[in-house]
Amino acid sequence: MQLANKVALITGAGSGIAKAAAILFAKEGAKVAALGRTKDELEAAVAEINQANGEAIAVIADISKVEDMQQATQEVINKWGRLDIVFANAGINGVWAPIDELEPEEWDKTIEVNLKGTFLTVKYTVPYLKKQGGSIIITSSINGTRTFSKSGATAYGCSKAAQVAFAKMTALELAKHKIRVNVICPGAIDTNISENTQERNLEKAQEPVVFPEGKIPLTDGEPGSSEQVAQLVLFLASDASNLITGTEVWIDGGESLLKG
Ligand SMILES: NC(=O)c1ccc[n+]([C@@H]2O[C@H](COP(=O)([O-])OP(=O)(O)OC[C@H]3O[C@@H](n4cnc5c(N)ncnc54)[C@H](O)[C@@H]3O)[C@@H](O)[C@H]2O)c1
User: What mean pLDDT is reported for the chain?
Assistant: First the structure.
């Protein structure tokens, strides 16, 4: 049990990477607060954990809203009285469009959820992590950190680049409190995220480069799974990584080395 007696808050836990992490964390002994906007999805994830003899609660909140995140943190503390691990993962692809066609409110929305949402998640939970130390893991992306060829996804790429800076700034600030902050940068992972992407006129923005096959060298082109990413998140959450902070880890089968 790598996370015995730990309490973890996981954002975006109704689907994808965070749902896989929630299930894995619970198997490893953590009590899991599964946070997200979509009640049905969260309740299904929590039921799955509880049926497997894990311990989890659903916390309904929008990470970009101040009151929601204050209240969500309080719910976790009221339930378990402590917090050790924060997986700040929830995010959106948002609108991908040529830069002169991207509306200011579309830009704002992506930054609000991905960057301000990360800030609020950390801001309101960190006072509790300070009590005994802990681990924060932030989900960035290969986009904006090692890959810059997804033209049109500028707001997304900028939000993901800023999350890496955020992790490094806070890693140093919080080290004296024995809080580690690391950031994961996934490549293509098989989740729901692309279903929620709004794409507009991307042919005007993108260079006509096509990878007919093999764009992920380690897997012959197959996307990674949420379960593979969850194993990395578990490592960063657990004491097995207790000297690692302020570090980004790319998890992409070599995709970003090829595409750049
Ligand atoms: N899937 C990929 O290929 C990939 C690649 C790189 C990075 N990422 C990042 O991984 C993270 C998780 O995405 P995923 O792929 O698991 O997709 P997903 O869409 O399955 O999961 C994202 C979850 O976040 C939730 N969410 C979105 N906005 C929210 C908000 N404002 N408040 C609370 N919850 C909110 C969604 O409801 C959803 O449950 C994101 O930050 C994404 O940018 C994904």
Answer: 96
64 lines ligand 1 (CB under 6 A): yes
Q: What share of the chain in percent tops pLDDT 90? A: 93
pLDDT in tens, 141-153: 999 999 999 999 9
- CA angle (234 as vertex; 257, 47 as ends), nearest 5: 120
**From start to end of the chain, where are the E strands?**
7-11, 31-36, 55-60, 85-88, 95-96, 134-139, 179-186, 198-199, 248-251
Verify whether residue 156 is a known catalytic residue: yes
d(CA 246, CA 176): 13
CB 86 within 8 A of CB 136: yes
Rounded to whole angstroms, the Cα distance separating 14 from 74 reads 20
Mutate to test the pocket of ligand 1, among 9, 11, 17, 38 (most ligand atoms within 8 A of CB): 17
Average confidence (pLDDT) over 110-133: 98
Q: And the tokens for 179?
A: 């809080």
